[in-house]
Design goal:
Radius of gyration: 16 Å
Number of helices: 6
Distance between the termini: 7 Å
CATH class: Alpha Beta
Number of strands: 6
Strand content: 15-25%
Structural class: alpha/beta
CATH superfamily: Flavodoxin domain
Order of helices and strands: EHEHHEHEHEEH
Helix content: 40-55%
CATH architecture: 3-Layer(aba) Sandwich
Shape: globular
Largest sheet: 6 strands, parallel
Number of domains: 1
Length: 191
C-alpha cells in the first residue's frame, strides 16, 4: 500500500507549536506504516492569489513565482493532507490562507484532484479563536471534496504560546494522536 500523508505547518515560526503537533500526528500515522512528510511554510514565500485566472487557461499552473508550486504538487500526489495553523487574530496565518486560496482556486479548474483524499486540520491557540480557525481549514477540505478525519474525543486543537508549550497540553496531545489514528484508519480502509 503506497500511501503518503503531507503535513503542512502554516506557522511563520520554525519549530513552533504547530509544527510540533503536526509532527506528533505524522509520527502516529508513520507508526501505522504510512509514509509522511512535514512541510513548514516558515521559511517559504507563499504569495496571495491575485485571481488573474491564469490557472484556468494553464490547467494546474499558477503564474506567481514563489514556493507554492512544489507544495501544491505534493498535495496533489499525497493521499492525505494535514493542514495546521496557529491562531493569528482569530484566524489562520497569512501563509496558510495564501496556500489554501491558491490551491483552492487552481483545483477548481482541474478535474477534482483532491476529491476523496483524506484531510485533517490541527490548530494551536494561545487562548481563543481556535474553533473559527479550525473551521477555515476544514472548509478547505469540504470544498475540495475531501474525506475529513477527526478525533473521537474533541476538536483537533491544542493550547500553547511559547515554543514547546503545546506538549504540556496533555488532553490536546491525546486529541491529536486520536485524530492521527483515525486518519491512518481511514486511509487503510479506502486503499
Amino acid at each position: 500500500m503506497k500511501v503518503k500523508v503531507v503535513g503542512i505547518s502554516g506557522s511563520p515560526r520554525k519549530g513552533g507549536n504547530t509544527e510540533i503537533i503536526i509532527k506528533k500526528a505524522l509520527d502516529v500515522i508513520e507508526n501505522k506504516g504510512i509514509q509522511t512528510e512535514l512541510i513548514s511554510l516558515a521559511d517559504l514565500e507563499i504569495k496571495p492569489c491575485d485571481a488573474c485566472r491564469y490557472c484556468r487557461k494553464n490547467i494546474g499552473e499558477c503564474h506567481i513565482q514563489d514556493d507554492f508550486a512544489p507544495i501544491f504538487k505534493k498535495m496533489i500526489e499525497a493521499e492525505g493532507i494535514i493542514l495546521g495553523s496557529p491562531v493569528y487574530m482569530g484566524s489562520v496565518t497569512a501563509q496558510m490562507k495564501a496556500l489554501m486560496d491558491r490551491a483552492g482556486y487552481i483545483v477548481r479548474g482541474m478535474d477534482k484532484p483532491l476529491r476523496r483524499k483524506v484531510g485533517g486540520a490541527v490548530v494551536v491557540a494561545r487562548r481563543a479563536g481556535h474553533n473559527f480557525t479550525l473551521m477555515q481549514l476544514i472548509q478547505f477540505f469540504n470544498i475540495s471534496g475531501m474525506i475529513i478525519a477527526s478525533s473521537a474525543c474533541y476538536w483537533n486543537i491544542t493550547f500553547g504560546r511559547e515554543k514547546g508549550d503545546v506538549v504540556q497540553d496533555e488532553e490536546g496531545i491525546q486529541t491529536i494522536e486520536d485524530f492521527a489514528d483515525n486518519m491512518a484508519w481511514i486511509l487503510r480502509k479506502i486503499k
